[in-house]
Amino acid sequence: MKVSTLPQTQSRKPRVNQTVADLPPSGIRRFFDLVVSRQGVISLGVGEPDFVTPWHICEAGIHSLESGRTSYTSNSGLLALREEIAQYLEATTGNRYDPVKEILITVGASEAVDLIFRTLLEPGDEVIVIDPSFVAYPALVTLAGGIPVRIATRPEYGFAPRREDLDRAVSPRTRALMLNYPNNPTGAALSRDQIEEIADFVTRNDLILISDEIYLPLTYEGDPISFASLPAVRNHLVLLHGFSKAWAMTGWRLGFAAGPPDLIAAMTKIHQYAIMCPPTMAQHAAVEALKNGHKEVESMRLEYDRRRRFISHHLNRMGLTCMIPQGAFYVFPSIQSTGLSSQEFAERLLDEYNVAVVPGTAFGECGEGYIRCSYATSLDALREALRRIEAFVTDHRSTTGETNPPPFREP
Ligand SMILES: Cc1ncc(COP(=O)(O)O)c(C=O)c1O
Fold first, then answer.
1. Which of 7, 32, 225, 344 has the fewest Cβ atoms nearer than 10 Å?
2. Per-residue pLDDT of the chain (411 residues; tens, 9 = 90+)
3. Are 372 and 362 in contact (CB under 8 A)?
């Protein structure tokens, strides 16, 4: 038998393709590898609810298993769930999406982010991404062959993209603008004026607006405003959403995309080959979440609201100035007064006081000088974490000669 081998002088290409090899690992995960090996850490690092999924939603998932619903659903997802989503979107945005042609159920909002980039991008196409932003966007643009073009957002203008920065970033290769409000990591939300300005930018430049609104039900000031409430942008808008955050369902892995039929059909094609359908029991649970889960979403939102006021009050008092978050469950204080870099701050806080936060740079270069603290943690844990952060900041103030803040008191 003839055995074929490569000639001695030739070696195969590396096993991992260059794009993947060059991709940096997620800054959040890297930091969490440090946390796992330690005892007694208070973590303000995780981006998921500390609540468990409301029991009646779990029961709906269990019931679907007990009833033998253990097969695939349609590739687009259970029609009953798409119909519930259409009703939910109509109730929250005033606009109707067709459950057959305009909605696709995905494995978390994460899969929807991946699908839309793979649907839109040819090699070298550009996507405008705000900085700081959720870690997956630039990575998934790159994996789809595109180029993320980052624009800075800053606390002085509420971490919203400015029109002049958008105008400067757009080029003939730009295909899309990727936004996420309420925002991870800054907690910023957009006003109606800002939303209209962005919609105008997108339609004038004939771009696709990808709006990840997974945190929209967790809005604390005023009514949540979805881009889907603007009919003018409808044909340019791909809305991404999911059950992980507001319904405390991270482990169920369920999200959805709503948008123009041509884009949803193309996304469905990729999803069909790569995924088939999201877990069936999770889809049944999500029907229950949309039908009967509003009370629990509201009580979790009220609890986050208490914590957000508590944590931002204390961070500001101790000189780690921050914008009061308007949505999601993150606060993004400046740590510039300590003279430490984001990475140093996070590593030393963990080492010296056993509190985990995420360095702002995990979310992009503009995150330098900031840390992300999640308040999806009990008030007791937050109180203790804040005491430790204050002690840490005081240690560093005494070395820089700055005066210490007034003592810790409940607001
Ligand atoms: C802005 C944003 N979008 C999407 C996701 C992923 O959500 P899912 O669990 O639905 O995949 C996250 C998770 O942290 C997020 O913060």
1. 7
2. 667 777 766 778 899 999 999 998 887 776 777 777 788 899 999 889 999 999 999 999 999 999 999 999 999 999 999 999 999 999 999 999 999 999 999 999 999 999 999 999 999 999 999 999 999 999 999 999 999 999 999 999 999 999 999 999 999 999 999 999 999 999 999 999 999 999 999 999 999 999 999 999 999 998 899 999 999 999 999 999 999 999 999 999 999 999 999 999 999 999 999 999 999 999 999 999 999 999 999 999 999 999 999 999 999 999 999 999 999 999 999 999 999 999 999 999 999 999 999 999 999 999 999 999 999 999 999 999 999 999 999 998 755 555 555 555 554
3. yes
CB 103 within 8 A of CB 97: yes
Which neighbouring-strand residues pair with 374?
Answer: 330
CA atoms within 13 A on the CB side of 202: 27
What phi-psi label fits residue 105: left (phi over 0), alpha (psi between -120 and 50 degrees) or beta?
beta
Domains and CATH numbers, the chain: 18-52+296-398 (3.90.1150.10), 55-293 (3.40.640.10)
What whole-number distance in Å separates Cα of residue 356 and Cα of residue 333? 14
Say if pTM beats, i.e. exceeds, 0.90: yes
Our answer on whether the CB atom of 183 is closer than 6 Å to any ligand 1 atom is: no
* Ligand 1 geometric centre to CA of 401 (Å): 41
Ligand 1 atom showing the smallest separation from residue 113 Cα: 4
